[in-house]
Design goal:
Layout lengths: L3 H9 L16 E2 H11 L3 E4 L10 E9 L2 E3 L11 E9 L16 H14 L2 E6 L7 E3 L1
Amino acid sequence: MSDATGEKLRSVGMEFGATTGRPRRCGWIDIPQLLYTIMLNGVTQVIITKLDVLDVFESVQIATYQYNGMQTQELPFDIVDNHIDPVYAQYPGWNQSLDNIFTFDELPAKAIDYINELERVLKTRISMVSTGPEREKLFAK
């Protein structure tokens, strides 16, 4: 996203190239891309990292696509030749710091709801979550 929200995700998440410092592209989670990756690679579990980056948002979003007049969670095979618009489902943000969270059960209810929704949409188990870069901030769901 090339707007203020994308910039906020980038700055809070410190998404800049380690060598060049080049800003990375950031946006809401892209369900069609992730579903395709899960299918292509035979993924059986997903780990959600950097959940703490979303602490500052009043709402969090999940992207699907509007393609040929229909909403889809599938990645179109002719993605380059056709116009695809993102469609965002909005979920309440937890709007609080996850700094002192070290287990899944300690997460705010809204964060747990968001993770459970991702697991439902992806049809893949989310096995771990991290709330920061430190090793102890990575825990099992």
